[in-house]
Design a protein that fits this description.
Blueprint lengths: L5 H9 L17 H15 L15
């Protein structure tokens, strides 16, 4: 899986970022179309689509 994880997206959302996430493709062994399709598939797996509302998990007891 991509180095971009669910936790990265969560961290961005925690600090109020909810805009564009760029895709860069530099694999010369893969076509542009395949690279884009795989990048989009990876982003869809980690993207947060629903607003969770108030924070419900408390840590640091």
């Amino acid at each position: 899986m991509s180095s971009l994880t669910f936790y990265t997206i969560s961290a961005l959302r925690t600090y109020g970022y909810g805009y564009v996430i760029s895709i860069e493709h530099h694999d010369s062994f893969m076509s542009v179309a395949e690279g884009l399709n795989q990048a989009v598939r990876n982003l869809k797996r980690v993207n947060i689509e629903e607003n969770a509302g108030d924070m419900w998990l408390v840590t640091g007891f």
